[in-house]
Amino acid sequence: MQETGSSYFIQKHSPVIRIWHWLTFIIITSIIVTVLLNSTIMNQRDNIKVVQNALKSKEVTVTDDQAFAVTREYEDKIWGVHKILGYAVAILLLSRILLELVQPNDEKLSSRIKHAMGLKKKNDGNKKEYQHYLGVKLGYLLFYLLLLCMALTGLGLAFGRDFGFSRGLHDTIKEIHSLGQYCMYAFVLIHLCGVIVADIKNSKGIVSGMINGNV
What we know:
Elements: H1 15-39, H2 48-56, H3 64-102, H4 109-120, H5 127-159, H6 167-200, H7 206-212
């Protein structure tokens, strides 16, 4: 595999991979925003008093349950958007699997991991960079597995009732999905910091490469 530039991290990216990358970034970011909204300013229980106070200023009094019903409507709307974005992630993941099958061999993730494992066996002055390169590629593989877990558990939550999932199974899937989201937050943060640092240091052009493809 022939890499372009002075760093193994400066690689060619086909237009479809670049489009997939930025669509995934936008959708995952949007998903994170929906979770943050519903856990902060749109939290239904935190807004019960807000609804009651607003109505009280109009000389209308409502119970906690009535106010809760109002706040829940708004939270449900956000979760509705979250669900649609989740469907988009599932479609993107499926499309990425198909892309892996049709991409040129030197742009396949599997080929780059195999290449990185071969480089790691070399005993020269670049061994540290080879190890880093392999670690990053394995990190991408871990990301796709995490994305698969989030997509499957998300679909399980969305359609579990239709398939007759028990309450216990539903709760287990929900716990896995909730845990996975924190792993996703961590990956996104580490990935952003990593590419920025790499672009500043010894892999200049790594960020722009996902825009222009380094072709």
